[in-house]
User: Fold these one by one.
Assistant:
Number 1:
Amino acid sequence: MSIPRLKTLVRPTRTTRTTLTEGASGRPDEAPATEPSRWKALLLIGLAQLMVVLDSTVVDVALPSIQRDLGISDGNRQWVVTAYALAFGGLLLLGGRIADKWGRRNTFTVGLIGFALASALVGAAGGEAMLLSARALQGAFGAVLAPAALSLLSVMFTDARERAKAFGIYGAIAAGGGALGLVLGGLLTEYLDWRWAFFVNIPFAIVAALGARIVIRREPAGSRNRARLDIPGVILSTLGLVALVYGFTRAESAGWSDPVTLVLLVAAPVLLTVFVLVQTRVPAPLLPPRVLLERNRAGAYLAAGLSVTALFGLFLFLTYYFQVVKGYSPVTTGLAFLPMIAGMIVGSARIGTRLTPRIPPRMLIGPGLLLAAVGMLLLTGLEAGSSYPALILPAQILIGLGMGSASMSATALSTHRIDPADAGVASAMVNSSRQIGAAIGTALLNTIAASATTAYEAFRAGEGAGAAAAARTLRTQALVHGFSTATWWAAGILLVGAAAAFVLINTGRPAARSATPPPQTEQAPSPKPRSEPARTRC
């Protein structure tokens, strides 16, 4: 036996506490917890995730300027957002499996470079066709990048306390990035140009890609999935997710009775049902049923999706409320979201990090969503003359603290007891649930708000007729009434998410699961035959 190999075998004895903790697979891990570059890698992973999340909302504030500069019609302007969402949501499962098959570091790097190039094309777009194509390309590379980033995190951090800190930082980025995108979009659009909302991605992507090649040197042995790619699964899942995301997105602008909307919303569950049936019959499924059938992961996916459903609806309402009702500028609108961002960062990076190793996940996700629901309930009292410091500020803080705490724990739980070879697709699932939740929340809650607004105007139509000022006042009251009605629904969605967390998630606290490893674990044979040669080869 060679001397280097002997050192490898001796190392676990010196670091028993960290190497015998529960990893992404739920079994004692060997190498990732002692990976010296894991904290540097976390900075790069966080930077990449921030770019992906920012681009889902940064365009919202910049959209009026984009439409004016490029001459995009009102009917086509939604495609600036939809093109990105469709490619991102539709290709996430494929992106996760690519990371499992060809290596997470390689996939991470390719995703970063592709995202930077697509961002450059968006910023340089001289017309509508180029802009929409580049936005779709951005979404496609985002679908490759996001699951690779999260799966890298799950296999590199295995110690319970370190894992909590790492996922706390990642969760803060995932939870607060959407709101931060509104701030950044407003600042760049008002003081520079809308193109800089996309150009700004390029230097960060280059730094992260170069850093990944230097810092992330290796992945755990046996963590790749070498099976053949499931082509039927790729086609069915992509078509099903695209139909679902586009169906809800189209419903926002064309209405729920639109024939195309109805076809999409009927086709989506049919395609996804066939996809699930195919996954139970093919030898190497794109989404192995075991990923979804573990109740704790299923609970994490459901809680993450429902929380984003409520959150993205809120982004829409408050953005319109600030700009249309209050008359805020784009920059002021973005800055008005800062308390929510601060709450998300504190809830994830501070509260979530401290409590995750000490309490079961359901006792963080469930109460977190309940706290966010309380904040939503406060906003149901919103009126045209409501005070920002007295009502909106405390509501945003409660929502931010609750969402941040819940998001961090749900993200960490999304790879609970997962085989390392499935870490990419499990990470893709939590991103898919959020992407679908965002599409549903934006479309469903906006439709509810619009219907409530119309009903309010019809009910009060006889009051103040003939006076322009009274008509404007009535319109403003109707808008706020619509926002308030939809916020009731958002609060209800959060309550359902909290109930799902309490009912489905039953695992204990991470520290307790990993504190008493079985004796002589180092001499025990590996449960995975494919990893045995790596443990015995000299």
Number 2:
Amino acid sequence: MAERAPENAAVTGGFATGMAELLLARAQDEGTALLFGSQRWSWREFVQAAAVRAEIALDQRSPGPFHIGLLMDNRPEYLCWLAGAALSGATVVGINPTRRGAELAGDIAHADCQLYVTDPAGAATLAEVATELAADRVHNVESPRYAQLLAAHECAALPAPPDPATLLMLLFTSGSTSAPKLVKCSTGRLAYLGSRAAERYEFSAEDICYCAMPLFHGNATMGVWAPAVTVGAAMALAPRFSARAFLPDIQRYEATFFNYVGKSLSYILATPERPDESDNRLRLGYGTEASWKDIESFTRRFGCPLVEGFGMSEGGGLQIRWSSEGPRDSIGKPAFPTIHIVDPETGAECPPAIFDADGHLTNAEQAIGELVNTEGLALFEGYYRNPEAEAERTRRGWFWSGDLAYRDADGWYFFAGRASDRLRVDSENFTAAPVERILFRYPMVRGAAVYAAPDPEGGDAVMAALELVEGHTFDPADFEAFLGAQPDLGPKWVPRLVRIVEQIPLTGSNKVRKTPLRQQRWATTDPVWWRSDARSHAWTRMTDADKADHDAQFVARGREAALR
């Protein structure tokens, strides 16, 4: 593979059209742009509302980065300010309202926002961590002062569109494995992504796109709002995700499309079945990280096909296109021939996976590598104020995803976890995702996260956090029988510790957070079951005395640093 650094089209202004041009083209469109509860906005009304916010932003602009922080649940004001930023040349920073304390304070300090738009809950949270903000720099959208501000600008004129290279969004990464980074996205790149998504998923002005995923996440803005603007489709917005509200919402709005992230499908499927579930207009659902079990169950219950996508907010051209024709656990095949799986140390392409007669991956150490696009820098616009992370992502002139994968002999790709998801047990290296896929087969499991726990004898012990189907308790004998019946579960892959959690820790975008699980290990009040002897098949409940004795073994072997 050639090691050349291709021209970065985004940085050099390679996008011909920005979101402002797409919005201005709808300034006289009376078709539906936005639905929220019983409220409706036409595209003409929505674009004018965006012009009002654009004028306010320009009037209140101060020296420094033209960044506007949005801290609120999903609501029309969020989209009005996003569109207003597109018209004014401002940059929106979507702040995760589920973060608190030092984490939120760090996000805010890093984002350099000169103006905040928030709701009452967000305003209270903001006051706790950003005391230096002047009162006139924070707009509570439910306050009388804000209503007066909108009224004063209600006749705002439509501005000329900014350059497509203008930075429109700073998107915080999920923070599922490390501190969140701020991904740059220009107005031109968002317009480009919207047109690609609209073409691929055959969006039209007749579509009604239901979105309950958070607007601070790229799945909502890049995968739903941008293509809706591109073709003039309607967006039906929910304040936040609710499994019980899903069916009533898609029926009320007559939605034709919806998006999901992470465990959303699992929670929908945990609600009681209803005889009218297939009475809907859904033609397609798009999302990421759903299990095959959930995809099949959802399609059966709601009569709606699902399309899984694999990509990143950063871009990098790392598109893996899922197909129902592929193996059950495959994420699909690369969209571009420049996407490869490589050894992160040498850059050499990894060989195809080899499976034994039972389907167990026998050459994991050689076959699993990092997903890269050797010509993917054109769609990566960088991180805000994080040159170290940017350099790591772009070394060798390639785009490095930080995601691990392997491929079979027919070219189907399989996700193997994040780079931090590697485990080493008895000198065997493997990753968490294949083990998680096996655990998801267990009928009692609704959620599973596999991660490395330290082993006093050296290396790692496989630990799994399991979220059980409601109404079920952990049966160690039944679980052991299940594990023994899985032919592709390698001997070193078998969990040694199992933590039963009420809910798997999630980010604000419903992605699994393994960092707290790794940090807590067995130091938790949740039930922890273990095989005290790694070679035993007997599971026992870990007592406080067991935990203390286990910790003491690390000290006795001089490995107490592994517990820090």
